[in-house]
Amino acid sequence: MKRILSLAAAFLAAMALLPAQTKVMSHRGYYAHPGSFENTLTSLKGAQDLGVEGVELDVHLTSEDSLVILHGPKIPGSNYPDVQKLDFKTVRSCVLPNGDQVPTLREYYTQANKTTGLMLFLELKAHPTPERETTLAERVVALCDEMNMYDQVTFISFSEHLCDEILRLRPGTKVIPISSSKAFTTEELLKKGYAGVSYHMSVVMNRTHLLDEAHDAGLQTVLWPVNSYDLADFAMRHHVDYVSSDEPQAMLNLMSAVRELNWKQTKKLIVFDLDGTLTEHRQPLTEANRAVLDTLRQRYEIIMAGGGNCKRIYTQMGDYPITILGNYGMEESQIVDGEFKIVREETSPVDRKFFDKKTTELRKKYGYTAYKGEPNEYHQSGMVTFALLGTKADQADKLVFDPDKIRRREMFPEVKEIFKDYSVFIGGTTSFDITPKQYNKYDAVMRYAAEHGYVKDQILFVGDDFADGGNDSQIRLGGMDYIKIDDYTRLPEKLQFLF
């Protein structure tokens, strides 16, 4: 740890001009703190609280085919040498060194699902026979199907048979082989249908072309174990997607510092969301955050990209002179000769009968039949706001309705499926925004960038909801650099490094 921190300054200087896309995977969760232990729910919760982008875990079958999480095969603190030879009741009776029980994969999924942006790297452990490995693959795929976890899961294994079985059972699933000795060719990885490759550092230190070629082919790369400055430096220089580390906190701090330095030197366009990022929902722009915008515009171009219409955003910001991409890019406003002006406005026809029918069905199913005002807001652009509390709901009621968005995230998969020909976002405090398919913040920003001579690497997006379904989610999915604001009152602190 001390070595990492002592070399941080040198690392920052060396990495200042390099892309900083490498993510941190917490090896067996975050267990390097009191009261935790590897591969437990405690270590998973620790990783979630820490804010890593990935967690590695190890999956075994018990003798009667239960799925449990343990590095194994021995259960620490017990006399049992092989978890695969025990029934679940016996495994569950064991107490790990921190007092936890051996968790099931179902329990792990349930906890992980509370952090939708977290990627789980499921290491499927080798089993004695191909038949047992096939059973493991079948059980894991069945649970993923049941709990709809594919967006959060990448399967990894030293066993190529297990990797191939997952793809046989569910073609297109993210599967990555692990290697501590074999060097895979890019052609072999692509032919097998693998999403990438995970290498021990010893495989690639003198064969860096393996990483470079995989990266150029669009394959994901993972490097392990990465617990030092030197390997972090190596991983970032070769654009490794994930580093698996037993010291995730140090890695996060180090890579965050590198990323911030890089962004200050390379970013030219900063794009802001409004509600939840610069202000409370539908509330005026705060003086402190107005001052942040004033400071940033001396060094960068700054614009807004919102789900609301341009005039509403402009008014809410106290007539702040800024370009606005409204309604997810369906309109654009600029300040022309000191005056607010709509310079582009696109519209799309709306089938109101269809929307009224489907949103009424959803209201009845989820119990939102009482509302104030209209049930839906039909914008002139063609965007539709499905307002669960109605278009005239009291502000106080709206703020306490769903502050953590759990209610709407529960509904989101069904709303998305019903309106599958549209783009669907969790908007505001009580609503869903539904736009024609081609409109979202990512495409809106990239359109503006192309028109004004920016490339994606020069853009930084500042928003509050990048999780699946969030109205900033397409920014994350599009691979644009972003900063997540959890508390708009702390925006000056979060962005100070850009000043």
Question: In a nutshell, what does this entry contain?
Answer:
This protein has 499 residues and is of the alpha/beta class. Helix content is 37%, strand content 20%.
Describe this structure in words.
The protein has 499 residues and is α/β, with parallel strands linked by helices. The chain folds into two domains: 2-262, TIM Barrel; 267-499, Rossmann fold. It is 37% helix and 20% strand. It is built from 20 helices and 20 strands. The chain has helices at 2-6, 8-15, 41-50, 88-93, 105-112, 130-147, 160-169, 186-192, 201-204, 209-216, 229-237, 248-266, 287-296, 310-316, 352-366, 395-401, 406-418, 441-452, 473-477, 491-495; strands at 23-27, 54-61, 67-69, 119-124, 153-157, 175-179, 196-200, 220-224, 242-245, 269-272, 301-305, 323-326, 331-336, 339-345, 376-378, 384-387, 422-427, 431-436, 459-463, 482-484. The strands form three sheets. Strands 1-2-4-5-6-7-8-9 form an eight-stranded parallel beta barrel, surrounded by four helices. The chain has a seven-stranded mixed beta sheet with strand order 14-13-12-11-10-19-20, sandwiched between helices. Strand 12 and strand 13 form a beta hairpin. The chain is globular, with a radius of gyration of 25 Å. The two termini are 30 Å apart. The model is unreliable at 1-20 (pLDDT under 50).
Strand order of the largest sheet: 1-2-4-5-6-7-8-9
CATH topology of the largest domain: TIM Barrel
Kindly provide the name of the CATH class of the largest domain.
Alpha Beta
Overall tally of domains: 2
